[in-house]
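Morning F.,

Quick status update on the modeling queue. The single chain you submitted on Monday has been processed. Sequence for confirmation:
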Amino acid sequence: MYNVAVLGDRESVLGFKALGLEVFLAENAAEGRVHLAELANGNYAVIYITETLAAELSQEITHYKDDVIPAIILIPGKAGSLGIGMNALRSSVERAVGMDIFGN
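Structure tokens below.
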């Protein structure tokens, strides 16, 4: 059975622990890289990453973009949404259906 992980800074991800998700703290890009590699090669089907951390790990995340598992989903962090997650979702949907169904 696969698990779900949340990766990011303490203030942004600690609340997910109350929901039963496994939380991994990464206060900088170096810690994030280590955790992301471990999670992606582990038993995790879904990895939620804060947008702030994802911005620093864009190359690593791109490596897993076309893989079915793990699904890497960007979530807003403590500073709010940076729009990175919505842009990634828009791009994925456009690739899947052949057009931008969100509109501008």
